[in-house]
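re: ur question from yesterday

yeah so i grabbed the chain u mentioned. its 150 aa long if i counted rite. heres the sequnce exactly as i have it in my notes:
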Amino acid sequence: MSRINVASVLLMILGIWFVLESLMMLFSPESYLDMWIPMMNEELLPPTVSEISALGQNLLEFMTFTTQMLGLVAMFASLLFLVITLIPYRKGEKWAWYAMLVIGGFYMSGGLILTYIGMTAHVPMTLIMVILWIVGLILPVKEILRKPSS
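ran it thru and got these structure tokens back, copy pasting raw so excuse formatting
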């Protein structure tokens, strides 16, 4: 198995994870909020979903809608990530490597920033995702970037 194929599989694992998270945001936004809110830093502990609902139904509906829209954007980006990983990245195209760098960079920097702000329970998963992304980019770098442009 070539380095490009191994890297593609690593990035495909990330893409599948992103798709699953975006599906949860789209179709189960309240449970997604319930999953993330309690795991935040104790000093920054926000109200739970039930407490937000008690404050006002409009606020909860707004948070639900916002989570669903974030899920929609994340779904499109995840599917783009997967398609590029499965077809052009596996073929070793340079532009696909740069696309994985940019798209993955947005995901990873966002995840690291959110983890740094206070979602301390998700540090291991975030670090695993960042490591998969870095290895998926570095492993085939010589094969992809040294190819002559076509």
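noticed a couple things. Residues 57-91 form the longest helix (35 residues). also The chain has seven helices and no strands.
anyway ttyl
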